[in-house]
């Protein structure tokens, strides 16, 4: 039950102050512990409050201050609160107890084992997208839907609710195609190549990508070393109308905003259950206006999907739920036993992409083959290739330079092509013994690249010098660490020393 | 996997600054976004960091600032971080990425349905008590153990772990008795009367109580209007040695500190499952050195326990788990259909307690009867009364003034008896129609008392003027709201107006 007075009493006011406080997603307001609002409203530290300015409302967490850092009549706002409330310094702000959220009773019912129907799911996702849930509520909802996994009806309802709370794009084409990898495999940067092939074949592929969440590089991070990616919706439309496709960052468009909030909590908990994954992937594709999707599910002992059976089950759920939204989906279970290509990190992966597009002799053939496989499946799914011939068509479009030419035009349309940076400091990790490479730990490779500075340092990451099955001599480089500063290089090398089995060699 | 470099590199240092920032339980550190530590460690907002000073370590959440509120070489600490780190202004503080917590893998396993053994539970509770879990982790653990309720073995393991992480008291007596109500019933302030009766009968009853969590008054809040309650362990021992019992606040002694952390999250989620409740109640009793416990379980439509069957099941679990720790427990299912006594709020309940102890003619008889019932059960459980005669003995000790005399001595020993305050402003809520009182909503009554200012304003709360079954005339007072300021009175009256069915009258 809310303690907020139900009457129409005006809520007590303070003056807005911008604090320059970075709190990630959470809107925070700082007030003097002895200010008149805290006293009259009976507010204590960490209370959830409702901030109002004009007709805007923001749920925020209250922190209190003693001392003179802020004045008695000030409400000092974190950057997130400032952005959402859209005020100017000194503007009056109302502060009161946040009302109770009806949707939390559905979360409680779900904890105790009741299935949620579509209206309940919509109410939850609506409150989540509006920033009304605290971390505690979010974690409870996600945990409850992991402890008793979402069934198909709940997954459909969650997907629909996640689509409904965000923007939704529409395109003037019968076939709008997308390609997505569920991740977990370092260097798996096929998207720029696939989009170049598909658009070169005349398909519409308005691709929005995310930045890295837990990986050393997201497609948007890599693309940013090749062209501007932070296009707004109007700019994105111009690129797609001109070239049939784009490769932009999805952050400027608000597609499935609840998903970004859920992902943040899932990352902390390191839980990523099927229902959430399906709703997360499909809600973004549906909101982006796609009606054909090819999904890459890498399977391997250190990938996200660990077994063929788990991959098949996930593929079935993805395809079935997609069909409920009129989206034709095709899932490809791919080899997830080792990183793809040579580079791991934004710029290093961009160099691999360029080598494939330009048909260079040292281009990583595994990346090329994967891109053709996925592009081929997409061409077949979209009806642009006869079944069984898609990969061959994709390979031809790549080989004759049409894909490379289209890729350059897309980059120019997005604001101009760039040359990816190269790292200032590099150091090899050497084989401690001679033998055959029998295992490459994807997770440790990703961590190593992150310690070297990826994705924030665009040039940082690593270059793999050996692959599964290779015979190596003692002292031969297994990989090279790339960093922008010697301090970051040292961190990464320390980690590599502490994890000698990152690349396992059998005599 | 932690991103913390594993090597022995010294962690970068900043100067400690006390910010006067109140964040409830959470240790927070504020640093400049562009300080050398954030840059070299790659720290972003809301990162979990490990703060070190001397041999002390504190897990904290990082918030970042732009601008000149703090200097580049400062780490500005919240009050909680300042207290835990125990530093002086300007002291050097180390800051680095917090290491990964091994116990979280057990939380993940529990989410996915695996039972936890005693070592896993101990590791979780150890990390919780040390402040290493964020709200996200805490909510996930509590949700997982609600979605699939704790079994008896897990409840025992959790109870043991919660006892082990805190202080543990020992007393030089064969029988140490305690009394506890699981709450949910406003005005149910029997403890001071029960302790007075038991100690007057020669039993040892070293009672520690909590302050209000969600209710308008905890026993410690009420007792504080009658005597000092914030005694440290040495002072508490002196009182118990002199008088055989005490009535102090448990906060100065660290009994089951993990419980306080769990309760905070349970309150936000409004989940309170059997296993957690049993571990919460019993861990505090065991840690306090009690070996006999009488438990009051009020049952009623708006009480915490809603049905006789649920009460019986909870009683069985409490008794069985208590036995595993050598504690004899007796549970009494009591009438939870309406508030107890007349006053609701710290001082108002204290006046009720005084009236019963002093045998005043207008003393609330329901409070007196409940206290005698519980004290009688305790006397029988402890072997100080023949079964069937306990309540009579309790009544006699109350009637002849021995309990009142003992109560005064305990208050004097704790630092001197006080007179509870009386409220400055009062206003009655009147019956809108004539008829019979058929329902009193415990939850709404509690909320009304809190809106009037309880428990922070000691004199605030309400006085019930009608009870279930009473015939009332139109315009007759049903209850009186007591407040310390007219603003708080207005809030409470607004709420009462909006909830006319708080006390239901049938014509």
UniProtKB/TrEMBL annotation, chains A, B:
<dbReference type="InterPro" id="IPR017459">
    <property type="entry name" value="Glycosyl_Trfase_fam3_N_dom"/>
</dbReference>
<dbReference type="Pfam" id="PF00591">
    <property type="entry name" value="Glycos_transf_3"/>
</dbReference>
<dbReference type="InterPro" id="IPR000312">
    <property type="entry name" value="Glycosyl_Trfase_fam3"/>
</dbReference>
<dbReference type="InterPro" id="IPR028579">
    <property type="entry name" value="Thym_Pase_Put"/>
</dbReference>
<protein>
    <recommendedName>
        <fullName>Putative thymidine phosphorylase</fullName>
        <ecNumber>2.4.2.4</ecNumber>
    </recommendedName>
</protein>
<dbReference type="InterPro" id="IPR036566">
    <property type="entry name" value="PYNP-like_C_sf"/>
</dbReference>
<dbReference type="InterPro" id="IPR000053">
    <property type="entry name" value="Thymidine/pyrmidine_PPase"/>
</dbReference>
<dbReference type="InterPro" id="IPR036320">
    <property type="entry name" value="Glycosyl_Trfase_fam3_N_dom_sf"/>
</dbReference>
<feature type="domain" description="Pyrimidine nucleoside phosphorylase C-terminal">
    <location>
        <begin position="436"/>
        <end position="503"/>
    </location>
</feature>
<keyword id="KW-0328">Glycosyltransferase</keyword>
<comment type="similarity">
    <text>Belongs to the thymidine/pyrimidine-nucleoside phosphorylase family. Type 2 subfamily.</text>
</comment>
<keyword id="KW-0808">Transferase</keyword>
<dbReference type="InterPro" id="IPR013102">
    <property type="entry name" value="PYNP_C"/>
</dbReference>
<dbReference type="InterPro" id="IPR013466">
    <property type="entry name" value="Thymidine/AMP_Pase"/>
</dbReference>
<dbReference type="InterPro" id="IPR017872">
    <property type="entry name" value="Pyrmidine_PPase_CS"/>
</dbReference>
<dbReference type="InterPro" id="IPR035902">
    <property type="entry name" value="Nuc_phospho_transferase"/>
</dbReference>
<dbReference type="Pfam" id="PF02885">
    <property type="entry name" value="Glycos_trans_3N"/>
</dbReference>
């Amino acid at each position: 039950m809310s303690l907020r007075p139900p009457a129409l009493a005006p809520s007590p006011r303070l003056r807005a102050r911008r604090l320059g406080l970075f709190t990630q997603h959470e809107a925070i307001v700082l007030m003097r512990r002895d200010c008149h609002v805290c006293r009259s409203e009976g507010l204590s530290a960490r209370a959830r409050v409702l901030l109002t300015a004009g007709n805007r409302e923001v749920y925020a967490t209250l922190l209190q201050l003693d001392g003179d850092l802020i004045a008695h009549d000030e409400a000092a706002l974190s950057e997130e609160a400032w952005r959402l409330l859209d005020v100017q310094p000194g503007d009056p702000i109302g502060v009161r107890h946040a009302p109770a959220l009806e949707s939390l009773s559905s979360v409680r019912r779900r904890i105790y084992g009741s299935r949620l129907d579509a209206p309940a799911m919509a109410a939850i996702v609506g409150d989540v997208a509006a920033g009304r849930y605290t971390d505690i509520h979010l974690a409870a909802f996600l945990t409850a839907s992991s402890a008793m996994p979402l069934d198909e009806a709940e997954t459909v309802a969650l997907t629909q609710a996640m689509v409904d709370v965000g923007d939704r794009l529409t395109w003037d084409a019968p076939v709008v195609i997308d390609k997505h990898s569920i991740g977990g495999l370092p260097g798996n940067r096929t998207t720029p190549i696939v989009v170049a092939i598909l658009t070169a074949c005349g398909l519409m592929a308005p691709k929005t990508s995310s930045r890295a969440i837990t990986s050393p590089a997201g497609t948007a991070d890599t693309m940013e070393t090749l062209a501007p990616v932070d296009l707004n919706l109007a700019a994105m439309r111009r690129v797609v109308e001109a070239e049939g496709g784009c490769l932009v960052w999805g952050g400027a468009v608000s597609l499935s905003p609840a998903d970004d909030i859920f992902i943040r909590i899932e990352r902390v908990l390191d839980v990523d259950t099927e229902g959430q994954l399906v709703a997360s992937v499909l809600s973004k594709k549906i909101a982006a206006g796609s009606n054909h999707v090819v999904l890459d599910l890498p399977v391997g002992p250190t990938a996200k999907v660990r077994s063929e059976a788990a991959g098949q089950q996930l593929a079935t759920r993805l395809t079935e739920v997609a069909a409920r939204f009129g989206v034709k989906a095709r899932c490809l279970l791919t080899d997830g036993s080792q990183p793809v290509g040579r580079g791991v990190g934004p710029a290093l992966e961009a160099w691999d992409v360029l080598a494939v597009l330009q048909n260079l002799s040292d281009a990583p053939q595994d990346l090329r083959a994967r891109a053709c496989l996925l592009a081929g499946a997409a061409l077949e799914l979209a009806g642009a290739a006869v079944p069984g011939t898609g990969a061959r068509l994709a390979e031809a479009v790549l080989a004759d330079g049409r894909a490379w030419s289209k890729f350059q035009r897309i980059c120019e349309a997005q604001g101009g092509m760039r040359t990816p940076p190269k790292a200032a400091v590099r150091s090899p990790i050497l084989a401690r013994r001679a033998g055959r490479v029998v295992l490459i730990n994807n997770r440790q490779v990703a961590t190593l690249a992150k310690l070297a500075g990826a994705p924030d340092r665009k040039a940082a990451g690593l270059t793999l010098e050996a692959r599964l099955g290779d015979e190596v001599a003692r002292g031969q480089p297994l990989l090279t660490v790339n960093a922008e500063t010697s301090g970051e290089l040292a961190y990464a090398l320390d980690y590599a020393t502490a994890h000698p089995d990152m690349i396992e060699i059998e005599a």
